[in-house]
Design a protein that fits this description.
Length: 68
Amino acid sequence: MIEPVDDRTWLVKRDAESSPEAIIDRFAGGYRLRRFSLTESRRTAHGVFTGPELAETAWWRLRDRRRD
């Protein structure tokens, strides 16, 4: 699920009670997907997408690939 933080930022969580796994923020003409970290320098970039929903889908696909 994606949870809005403000009009430019969303958190990707497994469910409402979970800790954030990724962060999506509006960036230039798209939405940047990064691994969540409290430290800005540790937020690993995973691409720019055309919408927050597409970025969320990309996150879960990335997580599924890591388990294979």
